[in-house]
Hints:
The structure holds two protein chains of two kinds. By secondary structure, chain A is an alpha/beta fold. Chain A is about 55% helix and about 15% strand. Chain A has five helices and five strands; from the N terminus they run βαβαβαβαβα. Chain A starts with a strand and ends with a helix. The model of chain A has no long low-confidence stretch (mean pLDDT about 90). Chain B is α+β, with helices and mostly antiparallel strands. Chain B folds into three domains: about 1-265, 2-Layer Sandwich (Beta-Lactamase); about 270-360; about 395-545, Histidine kinase-like ATPase, C-terminal domain (Heat Shock Protein 90, 2-Layer Sandwich), CATH 3.30.565. In chain B, about 50% of the residues lie in helices and about 20% in strands. Chain B has 13 helices and 16 strands. Chain B has helices at about 1-75, 80-85, 85-100, 130-140, 180-185, 265, 270-355, 360, 365-395, 405-425, 445-460, 490-495, 515-525, and strands at about 100-110, 115-120, 140-145, 160-165, 170-175, 195-200, 230-235, 240-250, 255-260, 400-405, 425-430, 440, 465-475, 475-485, 530-535, 540-545. In chain B, helix 9 (about 365-395) runs parallel beside helix 13 (about 515-525) and helix 11 (about 445-460) packs antiparallel against helix 13. The longest helix of chain B is centred in the middle third of the chain and has 88 residues, at about 270-355. The mean pLDDT of chain B is about 85. The interface between A and B is medium-sized, with 17 and 21 residues.
Amino acid sequence: xxxxxILLVDDEIPFLETMTKRLTKREFITESASGAPExxxxxxxxxxxxxxxxxxxxxxxDGLSALKxxxxxxxxxxxxxxxxxxxxxxxxxxxxxxAFDYLMKPxxxxxxxxxxxxxAMKKRRHEEKIIEAELKKITVSRI
Amino acid sequence: MKRQIYxxxxxxxxxxxxxxxxxxxISLSVIIYYQFTQVFRNKIEEQIEYRARVxxxxxxxxxxxxTAILLAMADTYTFDYLAEKNKLERIFQIMNHRVGGxxxxxxxxxxGRQIAYVGPYNLISLNYYSQPWFRxxxxxxxxxxxxxxxxxxxxxxxxALQRQENNRRWILRATIDSDVFESLVxxxxxxxxxxxxxxxxxxxxxxxxxxxxxxxSKSHLDPTLFGEGTTVLEKADKDGxxxxxxxxxxxxxxxxxxxxxxxxxxxxxxxxxxxxxxxxVALGCLMIILTTYFTTHLTIRRLETADRExxxxxxxxxxxxxxxxxxxxxxxxxxxINNPLAxxxxxxxxxxxxxxxxxxxxxxxxxxxxxxxxxxxEHVERxxxxxxxxxxxxxxxxxxxEDVDINEVLTQTMSxxxxxxxxxxxxxxxxxxxxxxxxxxxxxxxQQVFLNLLTNAVDAIGKDGNVHLTSRRIDSEIAISVRDNGxxxxxxxxxxxxxxxxxxxxxxxxxxxxxxxxxxxxxxMGGTIDLDSExxxxxxFTVRLPVVVxxxx
Lengths: 143, 553
């Protein structure tokens, strides 16, 4: 099993490409989207995605709006906000809306990797709990 | 230029004030003076007119009395009786005893011959038939003559009357004592230059003048100027002096009693009043001028000060506007730079990732590559710090208020720098007042402020020195001072240290934003910051924060 399935969302293409390569090299399965609508489409297709790294400032739909949709439609997926200094308040706002954490651009790769790991772990634990609860239900109903 | 404007304004105010003060003052003075002159003059004229009237009545009475006694004598005695010298003499004595003022008395028959005579002249037997007065007496019965010389060749005038007695006509004639008559006329004169005299219809003097002027000589006055009753008029005499005349006709309009007075002599009192009035008005004007000048001067100085204060305030506003504009620009620039910077950082990271590959590690320039990438990362980090600073400057968030213990924030901030300071042999001393009040402020912003000031102090010293940190309460403020014994800030830079991007640090070492951010943050918390620096001795920054008591939660 890969370390984690990641979806990277940023409108800055060179950043997106490089980050994707670097994460892939660190054995993350990394998908990339250059805007929020595309990211939502990909989440619909690919149910394996565990962590979304979401830029706050994007032209079509900003990170906060995208976050709200993701939390609503894919509640198990964890989101890490990516922000510059100018939008730091938005990132903090994102935390209140249920984002896992936020990171400031340009970001330190090791920090990002550890945050993604934590997010993935959280997601998996969450899923395991749900599965356990389901199993209990099934067992109880059989008895 | 500015001075010129104030000077012009001052001149205008003075001019207008003086104009509105002087016009009524001077008009009032002129009107009062004119009215006063008029009243005074009327009074003088009334007085002289009154004297003329009273004196003319006295003279008329004098003549009437003399005429009456003469008439009484003529009615009482017969021609024959009067022709006897001793009897005529007795009658003359009675007349002088009763009313006085007679010089002589004579009895003249119808042929004009003087039959009897009592008096100082030798006029007995002289014939008056050809004398003008003889005809007048014959036609009028009673006649008071003008002054004439007659046989005696002395100016005099007579009262004569004619009587009819048994188909015989005779004339009783008396000469009036000129001295008595003159003193009667002269009683009307007043002052040092006043005069009183009589002229006849032709303008010849009938009495002596006070200052020269022969009897019977021609007067310069034209009697036709004087009408019925008492006439008062002003006329220049031969020397050009203005003389006031009051005149009244006597003796059935044949004599004119004239009272003269030098107008200027009577007006002396008025002139004195005029002088006093002029002095008062002049003093009043002087006081108005002085008061106007001083009050205007004071007002203009006040205005100048107020204007200067407004200008200074405007300059401050412009300065803060400039800072705000720069802040916005800085935010824009920071954001635009941040994205490419992120890309550079990622690319560099990717290259570093690739260097871990086996074939790259075999490359003979591997170390060189790794070093270069390290440098790129270092400089990206530097650029990031600049942007961080710019955004810190630009961010104008409302301070988030919480309970803050200033001393605790100071101590904590100091701890960040302690190890760095120790390495550079810099001692940070603190002198914190123990019972400072807890204030409502933004803890994070305060920390940023203190960190900036402490970093500046440590950077200014470089190596070996000390930083002195104090906190104390002064009235309703808490003052926090950071003093270093570094090189100090040159005078010419002191006014600029709070401007964004102003730095004296070596290129690449400072962003020039630290103090500017500090200034903005302190201002947004309602505090002030100032600096006191002396070259070669060190610098002290003092932050003053208002004591805002935290609201009860």
